[in-house]
Design goal:
Layout: H1 3-10, E1 15-25, E2 44-51, E3 64-66, H2 85-110, H3 121-137
């Protein structure tokens, strides 16, 4: 999806998509165990992804990315809700950013291994590949 297609969909010029993160639970590692405890007090790795407004995970960076307030170097919502252009931007921003959250939800729904305590990222990737291979043999 191009910047122009995204603009037609969202009303936001030069936006290519959104970025967000999700926690993937892991088994506590033997080394640096405390580094993997998240704010909800369980062991995890933070996986970030960027998707366009069509919920396609992409690596394109030829425009602006939208993010929540956790990404201060990206386009984030205005903190004060004033009527007019700022409010319109915040509404468009919220609607557009919901796409990446939906993409993460779709991914976690499709690949249940992302909910289990895994021992490594390789385990997650192997589980996803294995599931895709199993699904392709039944098509």
């Amino acid at each position: 999806m191009t910047v122009h297609q995204c603009h037609r969909t969202t009303g936001l010029p030069n936006v290519i998509g959104c970025i967000d993160g999700t926690q993937i639970p892991i088994t506590a590692p033997a080394q640096n165990e405390g580094d993997y405890v998240n704010r909800k007090s369980f062991h995890s790795i933070n996986v970030q992804m960027h998707s366009n407004v069509s919920s396609i995970i992409t690596g394109e960076f030829d425009g602006y990315l939208l993010g929540d307030r956790g990404y201060p170097c990206l386009l984030t919502p205005y903190p004060d809700r004033e009527l007019g252009p700022q409010q319109h931007f915040n509404v468009a921003h919220c609607r557009t950013r919901a796409r990446v959250e939906m993409t993460i939800g779709i991914l976690k729904s499709r690949f249940q291994c992302l909910h289990k305590h895994v021992t490594s990222l390789w385990h997650v990737l192997f589980s996803i590949i294995l599931q895709l291979l199993e699904e392709s043999t039944f098509d």
